[in-house]
Amino acid sequence: MKNKEENEAQNEASKEETNAQPTAGETTEETPVEEPLTEDSVLDEMIEKYNKLNDSHLRLMADFENYKKKTGKEKSDLIKYGGETIFINMLPIIDDFERAMAHMPEGDDPVKEGVRLIYSKFLKFLEQNGVKPIETQDAVFDTDFHEAVTMFPAADESQKGKIIDCTQKGYLFHDKVIRFAKVVVAQ
C-alpha cells in the first residue's frame, strides 16, 4: 500500500513538470524568442564589437602615453631636485659666513680675506648647482617667494607692499623655493 501511494505521488509530480514545460510551439516569459540571424545583423554586431575594441585600445594607448610622460617627468624631477636636501642643509652655513663677515673688523686682515674667499667660492659652487638667492632689495612682496615677519607703516604711498628689510635670505633651487626670504613689509 505504501508503494502504491508513493507511485501516485511520483506520477503527479511528473505530470506537473510536463505541464510546466512548454511544448514545441509555445514560448515562456523566461526564454526570449531569438530572431533568425541574417548577414546584415551579424555584420552590424561585428562592427559594433570592432568599434568597442578599437575604442578601448585607443584609450589604453592614450593612458599608456600619459603614464610614460608622467613617469618621465617624475624621473627628470628626481634627477633635477635630487640634491635638494644637501643644499637646504648648507644654507645655515651661508648664514654663518654672512654673520661672521658682518662682524669682522675693517682693514686688511688676511683672515678676513680668507673668509671672503671661501664665502665667494661657496656661493659660486651653489650657483653652479642651481641654488641662487631670492632678490628682496626694493622688491614687491610676493607670497610665492617671501614670508612676512612683520609689517611697518609705509613712509609714503610708493612704499606700500614693498619690502623694507630682509631678516633672513631666501633661496631658490632651480625654479623651486627651498627657503622663503623672511622680510619686513611696508603697509
CATH fold-level name of the largest domain: Nucleotide Exchange Factor Grpe, Chain A, domain 2
Reading the helices and strands in chain order gives: HHHHEEEEEE
Q: What is the CATH-assigned architecture of the largest domain?
A: Roll
The level of helicity is 40-55%
* Number of helical regions: 4
> What radius of gyration results from the CA coordinates?
41 Å
Would you tell me the overall average pLDDT?
85
- Give the strand tally: 6
Count of domain modules: 2
Task: Give the N-to-C terminal Cα separation.
Answer: 111 Å
* Main beta-sheet annotation: 3 strands, antiparallel
Structural class: alpha+beta
Report the CATH C-level class of the largest domain. Answer: Mainly Beta
Form type? elongated
Uncertain ranges: none
Beta-strand content estimate: 15-25%
Q: Spatial order of the strands in the main sheet?
A: 1-4-5
Which key phrases capture this entry?
elongated, alpha+beta, Nucleotide Exchange Factor Grpe, Chain A, domain 2, 187 residues, 6 strands, 3-stranded mixed sheet, 2 domains, 3-stranded antiparallel sheet, single chain
